Amino acid sequence: MAHYRASESKREQFRRYLEKAGVLDSLTNVLVALYEETEKPSNALDFIKQHLSAGDPDSSQVEVLRVELEELQQKYDLLQEENRELRNRLLQYEPAAEEAGAE
Fold it and tell me: Is the pLDDT of residue 35 over 60?
């Protein structure tokens, strides 16, 4: 009898752990999505894997995005510098136009 209670207690602790970690919610959401699919996938396990990993991109995707971010940051910096230079060149001509309009 004591063995039965110990295993019940361990199960309950494990269930609370899964609930606290959000595992139960994630699994429930994926299973509901699978249930609501009008055309059931031929491989339900692949469907579950795909939907569970949708929130957690794999490391190759992260690395590709990191490289793209670095490239875009460099491009942004270059465009910012070009913008500053063009503004400065424009300011050289604007004061003359303002003075002519004031007269």
Answer: yes
Distance CA 67, CA 47 (A): 29
DSSP letter string, 1-47? -HHHHHHHHHHHHHHHHHHHHTHHHHHHHHHHHHHH-SS--S-HHHH
- Its pTM stands at 0.46
Please report, as a single letter, which amino acid is at residue 39. Answer: E
Q: Return the exposure string of 50-87: e unless at least 16 CB atoms fall within 10 Å of the residue's CB, then b.
A: eeeeeeeeeeeeeeeeeeeeeeeeeeeeeeeeeeeeee
Cα separation of 17 and 99, whole Å? Answer: 74
Place of tokens 């361990």: 10
1-26 pLDDT, tens per residue? 556 666 778 999 999 999 999 999 99
